[in-house]
Amino acid sequence: MRRILMLAATAFAMTATDARDLNAELREETNPVKRIELLEAAAASDDPQARWMAKQRLAFELAQAGEHARAEQAMQLNARLNARSEAVPDDSLVARPAVDAIVARAASEQVVMINEAHHVARTRWLTLSLLAPLRRQGFTHLALEALYEDGDALQKRGHAQTESGYYLQEPVFAELVREALRLGYQLHRYEYQGDAPEQQARETGQAENLHALLRENPKARVLVHAGYAHIYRNDPASLFGVRTMVEEFERLSGVRALTVEQSYLFDRPDRDNNHPAYERGWTAWQRDQGEATPRPFVLLDATGTPWSMKPDVFDISVFLPVAADGAWRSLDGRHRLRTLPDSLCAGQRPCLLEARHADEPAEALPVDRQWLENGEAAALWLPPGCFRLRSISRERAVDDERSICFEPAGKAIDE
């Protein structure tokens, strides 16, 4: 697990010469098609460190381009590492949807912290699904590690854009922000803003920013969306042995957070890399839920308490369903796969398709993206409504722009 936990701290810490050159090239290159091609070339480097760092960045960029399977393949992690030190559920536990179990546990909580794997967009699905029920339960703030800009500025504008944050440029994350604004959450930026390079400074700085939120708003109830091991306690292997964000937050505030781990128990492109606990959990879901639509789930004991693979480290372990058919991208029925005109991209390959809400400006982040390289049919996961479509190729930043509307039944209507 240590290798996974290091990612958030090392994702941009490239030290090899060619890695530094790559960062400089990426800062200059704004065309997303060229950025991906540049990273694909770098991921074939002879330098092992440069190759690994390029694969991390490639995974993030592929996720932003809607290439979720390729993103997970680019940075495939072996979940069986250190598996002997982690619990595997027994057959007495029952599988239930994670949203229901977490909302029930959160009823008396002031702070809930949930993590993600930055290159796995599926780990944002659960937080998106929790927004509405937690808002009804009285949660007031959404704190995002990935948010760069001030939350008040974002709320005034009403949508996220490129400057809002790097990870927010992935469409599911952008939808999470869009939904939080619609529901009336106050968005809060809590990333450390100082110059100290040490990991401890970042963890303590994040905790201080969250503590400040509670000092200013003592009655606030906060959903915190973080990365990887920032929500782990009592785990010396986490983040190089420093005191983590949640440990520092609980020390400063006196508030114990409900911690929800979902960056570990999901299916890997190579099934041999799945954690043994994942296989047990998925078998339980199929046994207990039958034909129910797969969604993030937990395992409950006879008292209704959610199972944790490391109960001293985090409170609840969440399992993600198998992703093979891509059905998770409906986001619990919010979106539907929409067929688009064949004329898009004008025969250019590779090509990136984007769809934005018609009532949002060009700077707004897309609702969905699709990477077209060979003979794939153009199709995006979109809700009902009207959208502006844009295609981008290697040679031109914008090849084609047009408007399109979809009725609730899914029929396309060109404007």
Kindly report the spatial arrangement of strands forming the biggest sheet.
4-3-5-2-6-8
Q: How much β-strand is present in the residues?
A: 15-25%
Order of helices and strands: HHHHHHEHEHEHHEHEHEHEEEEEEEEE
Helix content: 25-40%
Q: What structural keywords apply?
A:
five-stranded antiparallel sheet, alpha/beta, 415 residues, six-stranded parallel sheet, 13 helices, disordered N terminus, single chain
Question: How would you explain this protein's 3D organization?
Answer:
The chain is of the alpha/beta class and 415 residues long. The chain contains 13 helices and 15 strands. The chain has helices at residues 2-5, 7-10, 17-28, 32-42, 48-64, 68-74, 98-106, 125-136, 151-157, 171-183, 199-216, 245-253, 276-289; strands at 94-97, 111-116, 141-144, 186-189, 222-227, 258-265, 297-300, 316-319, 336-339, 351-357, 368-372, 379-382, 385-393, 400-406, 412-414. The strands form four sheets. It has a six-stranded parallel sheet, with helices on both faces. Strands 11-10-13-14-15 form a five-stranded antiparallel sheet. Strands 1-7 form a two-stranded antiparallel sheet. α4 (32-42) packs antiparallel against α5 (48-64), α7 crosses α8 and α11 (199-216) runs parallel beside α12 (245-253). The longest helix is centred in the middle third of the chain and has 18 residues, at 199-216. Mean pLDDT is 88; it is low at 1-17.
How are the SSEs ordered, and which strands pair?
Blueprint: H1 2-5, H2 7-10, H3 17-28, H4 32-42, H5 48-64, H6 68-74, E1 94-97, H7 98-106, E2 111-116, H8 125-136, E3 141-144, H9 151-157, H10 171-183, E4 186-189, H11 199-216, E5 222-227, H12 245-253, E6 258-265, H13 276-289, E7 297-300, E8 316-319, E9 336-339, E10 351-357, E11 368-372, E12 379-382, E13 385-393, E14 400-406, E15 412-414
